[in-house]
Amino acid sequence: MTFLKYGIAASALALSAGMVQAGEIAVIVKTTNSNFWQNVNKGAQAAIEGQSEHTMSFDGPAAESAIADEVNLVENAINRGVAGIVLAPSDPEALVPVVKRAYESAIPVVIVDSMLADGAEEYYQAFLSTDNCAAGEQVAERMIEEAGTEGKVAIMSYVAGVGSEIGRVGCFQDYLAENSELEVVGPYYSQSQMATALNQTTDVLSANPDLVGIFGANEPTAVGMGRAIVQAGKAGQLVALGFDGNEDLQNFVRDGVLNAIAVQGSFAMGETGVNTVIDILSGETVDDFINTGVVMVDQDNIDSDEAQNVLY
């Protein structure tokens, strides 16, 4: 849905920024020392290469914990008069004042990956992220395709009540309930600790030898789940689906331990983020929320360009 206030803000910013439309778009992420964020950089570069009016800079702190450094990078971008900013905020509160300053300087800001604190919406023009509910439904659909509509499916989750978990796991459960007779075991919460997920999955596999499927809902949980499946000698004996796409999870897919992994669209965050700023500078109305989606990666497509653009 496009909210009018964003359309008005975008148009006003485009008019104010008219003199710097053909300028630099600063892409500032949580850290540059991560393959995930380097994939965002690749997407942003792809967007810039598709046009001739703008240039792009890519920067971020050495670590996600260096919040003050990221604030300084945004300050510097504003001070040098960039045309627009794509920002992945490392802290929902600390980045609000500089985003407000960008707004007051008529510099459009597109937020990617993580939201700013409530009340900051008036200072940025769009938010790009994974629609975790849609992602959970996509994984559930894959589970039904491969495991069938009857039997038990275990959910290995991460932190109860976190926004991404509510959408991802809640919509996975709802989709199964509405479209199958599959019985859910769990969810179990690893607190995003790989070792905890390994131990929990070991116990679940032992207590439920008749499981037809299992879902690991984020990276450390899915890695622990995969290791437990290997240790229990259960690889290939049940449908195992993971979320995120680091090297461990990729290897589990290649080895047949996991049937597929749902990987967030990091490349799309960069590409669509830059294109959204360009649209705003051109006076176009943009959606307030843009889903950057997930790519389902399995043995058949893991070496494809689509998969390689999101794996890290």
Automatic annotation (TrEMBL):
<keyword id="KW-0732">Signal</keyword>
<protein>
    <submittedName>
        <fullName>Monosaccharide ABC transporter substrate-binding protein, CUT2 family</fullName>
    </submittedName>
</protein>
<dbReference type="InterPro" id="IPR025997">
    <property type="entry name" value="SBP_2_dom"/>
</dbReference>
<dbReference type="InterPro" id="IPR028082">
    <property type="entry name" value="Peripla_BP_I"/>
</dbReference>
<dbReference type="GO" id="GO:0030246">
    <property type="term" value="F:carbohydrate binding"/>
</dbReference>
<feature type="signal peptide">
    <location>
        <begin position="1"/>
        <end position="22"/>
    </location>
</feature>
<comment type="similarity">
    <text>Belongs to the bacterial solute-binding protein 2 family.</text>
</comment>
<dbReference type="Pfam" id="PF13407">
    <property type="entry name" value="Peripla_BP_4"/>
</dbReference>
<dbReference type="GO" id="GO:0030313">
    <property type="term" value="C:cell envelope"/>
</dbReference>
<feature type="domain" description="Periplasmic binding protein">
    <location>
        <begin position="25"/>
        <end position="284"/>
    </location>
</feature>
